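Morning F.,

Quick status update on the modeling queue. The single chain you submitted on Monday has been processed. Sequence for confirmation:
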Amino acid sequence: MVREAGAGSLVRQTSSGLASVFVPVIVSEDRRTICTHVAKANPWWRSIEDGTEVLALFVSASAYITPLWYPSRHEDPSVVPTWNYVAAEVHGTLRVHEEPEWKRAQVESLTNHFEERFADPWRVNDAPDDYIVTMLKAIVGLEITVTSIEGKAKLSQNRSEEDAASVRDNLAAGSFADRSVARAMGHEK
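Structure tokens below.
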């Protein structure tokens, strides 16, 4: 779910309350770490000490569900709107990385991951090296050591197969977000 979402919100406690930042992420092969980066100018990372707790929230599919899509409503009008989604909550501890080699490896990994769907993908090395060095000086790396993951998928499991199929088919004809939920529900397109 986290890999499919590609980006999410990191939330942590600060002396002035909760703070969040939205970031693209890379999940390690063993799923024990999640890596990202933020701009040095972003105050979100400033008071992080190694071991600071973080909650990372990811949504890979999300759509409104109207009762109009339930054929069963004609026999029993006791229906209400709802929301279908696929989401994950990841708890972990943070570590800040300012080493240029770590940051470059993270940026390259992130770029390669998201560029792999293109026929002729862009690579970090396509930009001038002095420009990349300047850009890397403007970010800090973040490494989350995962302590727990809770995945949730609400995809009309509580409805009859006829209602769920109708929801899936209607979502498949909708917006990009709707189609993402339809795919999560097993629609092929």
